[in-house]
Amino acid sequence: MADPVKFTIDGQELEAAPGTLVIEAAKRAGIEIPSFCYYEGYSLQAACRMCLVEVEKMPKMQVACTLPVANGMVVRTDTPQTRGARKSTLEFLLTNHPLDCPVCDKGGECELQDMVFRYGAGESRFTETKLHVDEQQWSPVVYYDGPRCILCFRCVRACEEGMGVAALGVVNRGAVSLIAPNGGDHLNCDECGQCIDICPVGALTSGAYRYQTRPWEMEHTGTICTHCADGCKTTLGTRNDQIIRGNNRDRSGVNGEFLCVKGRYAFDFNDHAERLQSPMVKVNGKLEPVSWAKALEVVSKKFGEIKARGGKFGVVGSNHSTNEENFYLQKFARQGLGTNNIDHRRTGDVVTLVDALSGTNGSLATTADMYERKAFLILGADLAVEHPLLSFQIRANYRHHAARIYTVTARAVREDDYAVRSIRKPAFSEFEALEELRGALAAEPELVILFGDTVKGPDVRKLVEFGQSLSIPVKYTALVDYSNSRGAIDMGLVPELGPGFHATGAAGLTLPEMLAAGDLDALWVVGENPLAQAALASKKAFVVVQDMFLTETAKAADVVLPSASAYEKNGTVTNVCGEVQRVKRAAATMGAKPDLEIIGLIAKEMGLAATMGPWLPDTVYGEIRRTVKGYDIPLPLVALGAQQTVPVNGRVGVDVRPDLVWSAHENLFTSGTLGRYSKILNSVIEKRSGAATPEQELARQ
Amino acid sequence: MYNQPSPLEVPVLTRRFRLPNSHKIDTYLANEGYQAFEKAIGMSQDDIINEVKASGLRGRGGAGFPTGMKWSFVPRQSPKPKYIIVNGDESEPGTCKDRLLMEFDPHQLIEGILIAGLAVGAHQGYIYIRGEFRYLIEHMDRAIDEAYARGYLGDNILGRGIKFHLATHSGAGAYECGEESALLESFEGKRGNPRIRPPFPAVAGAYSCPTVLNNVETYCAVPSIILKGAAYFAGLGSPKNGGTRLFCLSGHVNKPGVYELPMGFNLMRLINEVGGGVRGGKKLKAVIPGGSSCPVLKADECDLNLDFDTVAAAKSMLGSGGVVVMDEDTCMVKAALRIMRFYAHESCGWCIPCREGTTWLRKVLQRFHDGQGVKSDIVLIGDLSRNMLGRTFCPLGDAAAMPTIAFVEKFRDEFEAHLDGKPCPYEKKLVAA
Amino acid sequence: MTFSPELEARFAKFLAKYPEDRKRSATIPMLIYAQDEIGSVTPELVAEVAKRVGSTPLQVEEVVGFYSMLHKGKGMGKYHVQVCTNISCLLRGGAELYEQASQKLHLGHKQVSADGFVSLEEVECMGACSWAPAVQINYDFYHDVTPEQLDKLLSGLMAGKKPEEIAEVKKVSC
Ligand SMILES: Cc1cc2nc3c(=O)[nH]c(=O)nc-3n(C[C@H](O)[C@H](O)[C@H](O)COP(=O)(O)O)c2cc1C
Ligand code: SF4
Ligand code: FES
């Protein structure tokens, strides 16, 4: 490390690493230098001129956003001259900016409003007519109001540098300059909405949120996005228990300010008209609404009967239920119902990876590693569409630290654009490229290997052997789908393994086996839709389904219990990197109940309350802490931010079935059942695929 | 040439202009052409740069930065290729000299570029020419072809193992692309927004490689300096302002035209003796001494020598050599308005003070000239200009602000004469004239 | 998109000027020469230039809007009359020339005649200050233009003549 530089800002004697910008150094010392165009992490512009400061021995004011600190430099940020400059810049800015704050979505959260409040003049001397252009809609979710745009170019950079998409540009010259989309009059992009989020004013607004509410009328709840496995923190703005907005403006969580199209917009499944609100029981082949008491009674009686006669249960959990729900469900199955027939849809071979890494420490990559480690090998995965956050992190790493990226995929992926090597290999033969890369990879100081579902079972072991043979520090990520695939396996939702990867040593049916068993007496499905892909062989099976919607599986059920969404409950989930995070209720339910409560009520009804213990999320979490290795983390700590868990460190002892691992490869615009019921995702898909209907698009996936 | 010569001229850069076929390489070779280049081949890089430094040559594009010094900033050890870029954007209102240098003596420019290439170790040059000068681009292309054909450009120039390639590059109408860093962006095929500096072009210019970027006239002076010596060139001008320069005399004079005169030539003599005095025997009111971005001088301030330092001391600038003469019937509000219209039209839009400031000022000045001005507008015009000054991303903002401040400060009475619904007092006279 | 062989040859020359990985430099020269041939900068042209220089269409679009000489939509007339009214020309009657042209042609700033033959533009300084007032028709300069000369030029154009056929007025040549 080079010696720190010593300098003075507003009389404070400060130190910082060479190259630190004055605006950053000031911020760290608690001195605010106003800015519009400067945005940490993105390229410098020096365009807005809000950050002008006085520097001793320099005749003109200097822009703090591009000026590195220097030894002996004396900076003044608050002088008559700087105050005057800020005031006049704001006065200039307001000449063509419409003063429609009362109807602007950004009103109350607008950086320009705040600046004028703090640094501006009470009145403007501008009496001429303002320039005007009409508002444009660029996509179902992105609107652009030219006159409000202050040309800070944040959106352009967020899209080009942050997302690697470069769908926004600047057209025209001078005062009539505007931001423009890449499709001429529309956007061809990820529709992630980062441009809207980063816009300091109301120039870019969201199709989902515009004109819905005033920001101060909403309640804000920080929780975790429920769509993919990356586990982005999202802040849901709700009014009257309706979710109106998703964003992450406090930049906390594993994702900083990143959110993809799903995280930002696809919360609207929550209010879908087809949400189940009442339990239903099948009478004469038809599902009829009944009271909760009635439904619970039917279920518990039937379960009790089957249990009493030693009948065959099949219990299916979900890779987007919370850890608490899954833990409780497997406990109920194993201890309450006495069956080991429990499974879920497995989407990545985490178990073999953990087993192969037995005896090593810190070998599972964290989300932060994606931004910090020096090299990446991506096998068989299209991160930009399947793991948008990981892709974003690696891209930022490339921009800020020149990370070196190697891709081995069947088709072109976005990472190719900045990869040092890109190799095309058909799925399942990604391995063939490894030897070709050995020399280059061995020369890297450290490496993270990310692999998709085409690498499983023995291949995972071979991959780890390859990694260890490079003689450099290597970390791994087995890519999984959905918000809690990792948690489902950690909580023991497979016959072979109990919570914390403890071999159960007992036989049990896997999900396909349950469906194929002609003698199955009961199938209990919590938050999963297995009958969408396969038929149920047993004609006599009593089917209980807990779901938010009347899915294919729910339609076949004898009893349907409406469940709360992830945005309506508390608990924890574990993301693709094994980081456990807290989900928090943002909205109340209408008739539905959280799965944990439903399971608890069934237990109670069956007289199993004492065996099962309370169905309070925090209490169940306490049990998880005691039972699952790596999860011994106090809840307040989890609430503070993601904590990485390693469910075991040692041999797992049993082989889990690699053939059951498969990913749905859902892309940015699809997301299983939830995505299907998101109007916004569907409207985006519709727009993108032209003639194809959303259903066709989904079928194509 | 488009105008008659003046006996007071000291033709150095223009000395071949009136020869028949002056643009042909044969004419050039027969008249000292490429001799300086041959001489420079025998000199070390330091020798060339020191010679240019000693000549007192200062950039002719506007800022007057010492050329030799600029060349010395190019890092010798850089492993990157180096580039010579010629600023032939010539778009400062009042300026029309680079055009002539390219038209009448293109090989002098090529030779200057070649010598710059030797000085910094560059093997590739580009001449950026404004798109409106299409005929010149094609004219320069022909001259470049001639130079290739005669072995003055190529991989092994004159069999001496020197490599240098040269090409023209067309702009497409944007004043801002005359600003060096915006020019580089434009050259790279982008919008002409200026770049953050440092790094300066000498370190990271074209394609982020070390680059020498000078005005056409600056390069054209180099062959004479090398051939005839720094002392000769320095001796032509005034202290710290070596050589001659092409003054573009325009506006209300009897003999407008481009005249090559020694640096430090007196402005009043330029108007009266070279330019034949103010047209129609009218009285002189004001002069813009170096292109539209330079603060206007009142008639009584015009007895001064035209070199960078003297004009700066008079709180204006020598700029690009565009001397615009205005007679007693000229409306200063109208002049200020027209100049501001230009800057508002040409502001690239990157930074707030320039983008919004020029537009606002244009609107106020327009309203003012239309007779809708109120007294507070006069203060406002000055204020807004001062609020732009020194705060914009590139000097275009200053270029718009400085002349405006001078117009209001020096001709406040004319602004007042327009107040409160009064028609422009000069409009009638102009129509009558 | 297909262009004339001459334009293709020019494109090839442009692309050869710049280093291998810097073909984007050819964007502006290609656009302006192509506009001369096809009349304006069309979306197809933008896409074609982008393809050839290795940019995205948006990157080319960004450029198009920045430069005054690049025209989108229908473009300017076959003969584009440009009258400079900037300071040096203003002082010598440039604004009056523009007014005269506007009235005679019944065209305003950047307007094109119905038959697409003539268009008019009030332009910024074109580098002819010492020979003001100046007019450009397409790329040809006319210096020290008098109202009479302009009248002849415009009458000729309105009668469908090419500027070079209007014998009384000579362009500046080199
Ligand atoms: C807004 C603006 C426009 C400029 N236009 C020109 C121009 O048209 N031609 C030119 O040679 N220099 C122009 N310059 C100056 C250049 O930035 C640069 O200083 C010059 O080309 C350097 O060459 P020199 O040292 O030989 O003068 C302009 C500067 C600014 C700020
Ligand atoms: S001063 Fe600002 S807006 Fe004006 S031309 Fe320079 S960068 Fe562009
Ligand atoms: S923050 Fe420095 S210029 Fe915008």
Q: Can you put this structure into words, describing what you see?
A:
The complex is a heterotrimer of chains A (701), B (433) and C (174). In chain A, α2 packs across α3 (111-119), α7 (292-308) crosses α18 (595-605) and α8 crosses α20 (617-627). Chain A has 24 helices and 28 strands. In chain A, the strands form 7 sheets. Chain A has a 7-stranded mixed sheet. The radius of gyration of chain A is 27 Å and the shape is globular. Chain A has 4 domains: 5-78, Ubiquitin-like (UB roll), CATH 3.10.20; 111-271, Alpha-Beta Plaits; 280-347 and 484-648 and 664-682, Rossmann fold; 350-479, 3-Layer(aba) Sandwich (Dimethylsulfoxide Reductase, domain 2). Chain A is 29% helix and 17% strand. The relative contact order of chain A is 0.11. Chain A is α/β, with parallel strands linked by helices and 701 residues long. Chain B has 433 residues and is of the alpha/beta class. Chain B has 3 domains: 25-236, NADH-ubiquinone oxidoreductase 51kDa subunit (Rossmann fold, 3-Layer(aba) Sandwich), CATH 3.40.50; 244-327, Ubiquitin-like (UB roll); 332-432, Up-down Bundle (de novo design (two linked rop proteins)), CATH 1.20.1440.230. Chain B has helices at 25-30, 35-41, 45-54, 67-72, 98-104, 106-120, 134-149, 180-187, 216-228, 230-236, 267-274, 308-313, 332-346, 352-372, 375-388, 396-410, 412-417, 427-432; strands spanning 83-88, 124-129, 154-157, 162-170, 211-215, 244-251, 257-262, 265-266, 284-288, 297-298, 305-306, 322-327. By secondary structure, chain C is of the alpha+beta class. Chain C has 2 domains: 5-66, Orthogonal Bundle (Arc Repressor Mutant, subunit A); 79-165, Glutaredoxin (3-Layer(aba) Sandwich), CATH 3.40.30. Chain C is built from 7 helices and 5 strands. A 5-stranded mixed sheet of chain C has the order 2-3-1-4-5, covered by helices on one side. In chain C, α1 (5-17) runs antiparallel to α2, α2 (27-38) packs antiparallel against α3 (43-53) and α6 packs parallel to α7 (147-158). At the A-B interface, α2 of A face α13, α14 and α15 of B. The complex binds flavin mononucleotide, iron/sulfur cluster and FE2/S2 (inorganic) cluster.
